[in-house]
């Protein structure tokens, strides 16, 4: 967005003391610019508000591509039409003449020039307290539109003071102003923001015009198609909030599929797609179930059933039907409306990394790492001209659209530690000429602090009886407490290793 020459008053330099946060607990990134966690906030309510506002926005905003918007956008005579900024959703909190920024993930920032400017403008206007919603973005020196990965890099690890100076804030709503909440009537919130930041340079209100449905499409053509903006956002108190963006094209590896149920049996339900991160390593991106004709669903199901392989990783679809895994090789072209890397509360979206063991024709789950989700994915076609390898399916397809946390981390380097066997016992019993076997195994995973997929302790029993209709049975217990899991072990021993059962093997770790 264009910015006028700076005319805003300057705030005095920040010292170690800050009225809104424990500045001494924040990390100095460059000069006066600091960052840290929400535990440093003087008022924890700001974090609750930031998360609630982001959640509310996610629940009320509907996303369309241009063609869908032409069909489904409500006919409203007087909408607020804004240029969409490709940045990071952030709240700006002001009190006692000072400002800080806070995102729903709990990251607090102080000491950047855009915050000094906001504080000075609000103080000059006589404001006592405020909470603003907007996009933190980078004003690029090359004149190109801001991108979310620019702000992520600069905000977290600026290389120079010039980069800190490039951080800007585009206000799109006012959530609190001197104890009042004007956001319920957007015209009031916008008018307040435009009045307060009329003289802003690094802090401005998003470029907004008013108009009817046709004006929305006119602005899309101007801002997006001609000027390269990310999209447009239209707001109306009566019809809601709509985001209109171009669709993205992605090429991803097909690693699994699920079949329909009931009257859809014999037809493909959805594909499980992944991005190759190494020659034999793939990370799940998501599922795609739209864009298929019934004829295509039937033919793809036949093709995929010929490529079935083993896997120790299982994922289920929306009908709770497990995906069957296939050997890597097929590449699907998809379109999606957006790619997001964080939840509405700011948490990362973690996806499983899988290793492909070609000689054994099986997949092995490694661990979950941050990646992304696809918004409104649609199948386009299979790509016969591409292979499922990093050279053809670049990770940058995703990272160019959204910032992916910890992108540089390698799943192989973060392979989870091996488990430690604590107890092992085997007992047998002869009944009617058949040998029955029961095996108890207790182990510590050593993974509980590194992955939410693993408990601290696991107790497992294998019960084999050849005379039963189902000869092999399994049962499992998990716990975060060694005392509790050992109590389970004693209970199982007392229950299962009596009445003629003879222990033939025992090992204590």
**Count of helix runs:** 10
Low-confidence stretches: 1-15
Looking at the overall shape, the CATH architecture of the largest domain is 2-Layer Sandwich
How much of the sequence is in beta strands?
Answer: 35-45%
Count of separate structural domains:
3
| Helix/strand/pairing category | alpha+beta
Distance between the termini: 64 Å
The dominant shape is globular
As a whole number of angstroms, the C-alpha radius of gyration is 28 Å
State the total count of DSSP E strands: 29
User: What is the helix content?
Assistant: 10-25%
CATH hierarchy, class of the largest domain: Alpha Beta
CATH homologous superfamily of the largest domain - what is it? DNA ligase/mRNA capping enzyme
Keywords:
single chain, 509 residues, alpha+beta, D-amino Acid Aminotransferase, Chain A, domain 1, OB fold (Dihydrolipoamide Acetyltransferase, E2P), 3 domains, eight-stranded mixed sheet, 10 helices, 29 strands, 37% strand
Describe, in short, the structure shown:
By secondary structure, the chain is α+β, with helices and mostly antiparallel strands.
Give an account of the 3D structure.
This protein folds into three domains: 23-244, D-amino Acid Aminotransferase, Chain A, domain 1; 248-399, Nucleic acid-binding proteins (OB fold (Dihydrolipoamide Acetyltransferase, E2P), Beta Barrel); 420-508, no CATH class. The protein is α+β, with helices and mostly antiparallel strands and 509 residues long. The protein has helices at residues 45-60, 66-72, 113-124, 148-156, 161-165, 186-196, 213-226, 294-305, 396-399, 482-496; strands spanning 27-30, 33-36, 61-64, 79-84, 88-95, 98-102, 108-110, 129-138, 167-177, 203-205, 208-211, 231-236, 240-244, 248-259, 268-278, 281-288, 310-311, 324-325, 331-336, 338-340, 350-357, 362-370, 373-375, 378-382, 420-431, 434-444, 457-464, 472-479, 502-508. A hairpin with a 7-residue loop joins β27 and β28 (472-479). The strands form five sheets. Strands 14, 15, 16, 17, 18, 19, 21, 22 and 24 form a nine-stranded mixed sheet that branches. The protein has an eight-stranded mixed sheet with strand order 1-2-7-6-5-8-9-10, with helices on both faces. A five-stranded mixed sheet has the order 3-13-12-4-11. Residues 1-15 have low confidence and may be disordered. The termini are far apart.
């Amino acid at each position: 967005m264009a910015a006028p020459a700076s005319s805003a008053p300057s705030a005095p330099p920040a010292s170690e003391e800050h009225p809104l946060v424990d500045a001494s607990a924040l990390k100095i990134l460059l000069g006066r610019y600091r960052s840290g966690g929400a535990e440093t906030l003087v008022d924890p309510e700001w974090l609750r508000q930031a998360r609630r506002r982001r959640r509310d926005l996610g629940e009320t905003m509907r996303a369309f591509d241009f063609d869908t918007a032409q069909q489904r956008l409500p006919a409203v005579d007087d909408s607020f039409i804004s240029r969409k900024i490709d940045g990071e959703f952030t709240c700006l909190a002001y009190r006692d003449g000072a400002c800080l920024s806070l995102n729903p993930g709990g990251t607090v920032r102080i000491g950047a020039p855009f915050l000094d400017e906001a504080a000075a403008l609000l103080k000059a206007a006589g404001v006592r307290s405020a909470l603003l919603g907007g996009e933190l973005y980078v004003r690029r020196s090359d004149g190109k539109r801001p991108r979310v990965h620019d702000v992520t890099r600069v905000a977290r690890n600026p290389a120079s003071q010039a980069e800190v100076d490039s951080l800007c804030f585009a206000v799109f709503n006012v959530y609190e102003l001197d104890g009042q909440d004007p956001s319920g009537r957007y015209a009031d919130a916008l008018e307040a923001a435009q009045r307060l930041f009329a003289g802003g340079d690094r802090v401005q209100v998003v470029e907004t015009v008013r108009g009817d449905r046709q004006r929305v499409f006119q602005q899309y053509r101007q801002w997006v198609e001609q000027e390269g903006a990310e999209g447009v956002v239209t707001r109306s108190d009566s019809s809601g909030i709509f985001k209109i963006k171009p669709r993205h094209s992605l090429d991803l590896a097909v690693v699994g599929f699920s079949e329909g149920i009931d009257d859809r049996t014999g037809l493909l339900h959805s594909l499980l797609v992944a991005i190759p991160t190494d020659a034999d390593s793939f990370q799940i991106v998501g599922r795609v179930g739209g864009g298929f004709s019934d004829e295509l669903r039937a033919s793809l199901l036949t093709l995929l059933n010929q490529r079935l392989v083993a896997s120790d990783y299982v994922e289920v679809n929306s009908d709770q039907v497990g995906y069957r895994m296939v050997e890597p090789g097929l590449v699907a072209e998809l379109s999606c409306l957006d790619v997001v890397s964080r939840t509405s509360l700011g948490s990362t979206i973690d996806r499983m990394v899988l290793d492909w063991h070609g000689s054994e024709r099986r997949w092995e789950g490694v661990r979950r790492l941050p990646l992304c989700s696809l918004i409104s994915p649609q199948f386009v076609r299979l790509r016969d001209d591409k292979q499922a390898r990093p050279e053809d399916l670049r990770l940058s397809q995703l990272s160019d659209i959204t910032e992916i946390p910890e992108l540089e981390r390698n799943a192989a380097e973060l392979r989870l530690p091996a488990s430690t066997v604590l107890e092992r016992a085997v007992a047998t019993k002869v009944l009617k000429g058949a040998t029955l076997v029961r095996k108890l195994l207790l182990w510590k995973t050593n993974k509980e602090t590194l992955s939410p997929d693993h408990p601290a302790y696991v107790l497992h029993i294998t019960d084999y009886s050849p005379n039963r209709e189902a000869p092999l049975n399994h049962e499992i217990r998990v716990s975060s407490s060694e005392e509790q899991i050992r109590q389970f072990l004693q209970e199982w021993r007392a229950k299962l290793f009596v009445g003629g059962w003879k222990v033939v093997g025992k090992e204590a770790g």
